[in-house]
UniProtKB/TrEMBL annotation:
InterPro entries: Nucleotide-bd_a/b_plait_sf, Ribosomal_uL23-like, Ribosomal_uL23/eL15/eS24_sf. One of its GO terms (molecular function) is structural constituent of ribosome. Belongs to the universal ribosomal protein uL23 family. Residues 148-187 have a biased composition (Basic and acidic residues). One of its GO terms (cellular component) is mitochondrial large ribosomal subunit. It comes from Penicillium brevicompactum. GO terms for biological process: mitochondrial translation. It comes from the Eukaryota. Residues 148-225 are annotated as: Disordered. The keyword Calcium does not apply. SUPFAM superfamilies: Ribosomal proteins S24e, L23 and L15e. This is Large ribosomal subunit protein uL23m. Keywords: Ribonucleoprotein, Ribosomal protein.
Length: 225
């Protein structure tokens, strides 16, 4: 609710003239003619659900909303008649609080959302999306979004390794799969590819040097102390 003292006199008079109100507000220093104006502090959002028929509409409402509140809201503000309302509370999934673009942090469950499906007296057809986006400055919006993303990448150059796939590893797997499919290479188990023959390993007590991979050799030289 907005108090009358917080509203400019001219703006309030304009609202009251449009509403056709002529009652005098008592105990007001300016003696403004009209009645108190109550502005809602909640938000009701119409959700586009293409699976719904034109006789039904879905809204996202505050958790404190009930069916009578939504029916009164639609009728008094938009003149929309309602035949029935179904409501449910949708719990949100557990996520992490990310900091500095990192994918880790304390676990939390976001606030649940309440949705209501309304059966309308008159059908409502959702308008089609405009094909020409030039009047809405869509290109400028896309450029601004791309610029914001570039700035975020500059500020947080070290991303979480789980956010983007390893393209080099994927390309190596693809190349190896194609070679096996074309019979250019013969598949061998990993222990054979690394030279881990059971009898040789038992005799030498280690991997033969000729078959040691580079990463294994480096790990042996700079192993844990």
């Amino acid at each position: 609710m907005v108090r009358l003292g917080n509203i400019g006199g001219k703006a309030l008079r304009r609202v009251q003239e449009q509403a056709g109100v002529n009652a005098v507000i008592h105990n007001h220093p300016e003696g403004i003619v009209g009645k108190p104006v109550y502005l809602p502090q909640f938000r009701v959002a119409l959700v586009h659900n293409p699976n719904n028929s034109p006789k039904y509409a879905q809204f996202r409402v505050p958790l404190s909303f009930n069916k009578f509140d939504l029916r009164s809201y639609l009728w008094n503000l938009y003149g929309v008649g309602v035949l029935g309302i179904r409501s449910y509370v949708q719990a949100q999934g557990i996520t992490r609080i990310t900091r500095d673009g990192k994918g880790y942090g304390p676990w939390r469950r976001p606030k649940s959302q309440k949705r209501m499906t309304v059966e309308l007296k008159e059908p409502f057809a959702w308008p089609e999306a405009p094909k020409d986006m030039a009047p809405f400055e869509h290109e400028s919006w896309k450029k601004a979004e791309l610029w914001q993303k570039e700035q975020q990448d500059k500020e947080n150059p070290k991303r979480n390794s789980g956010e983007e796939p390893d393209h080099k590893l994927r390309a190596a797997y693809k190349e190896q799969a194609e070679a096996l499919r074309e019979n250019k290479e013969t598949w061998r188990p990993t222990w054979k590819a690394l030279g881990l023959e059971p009898h040789e390993a038992a005799k030498a007590g280690r991997i033969p040097p000729a078959t040691q991979p580079a990463w294994y050799a480096r790990q042996r030289k700079t192993g844990p102390k």
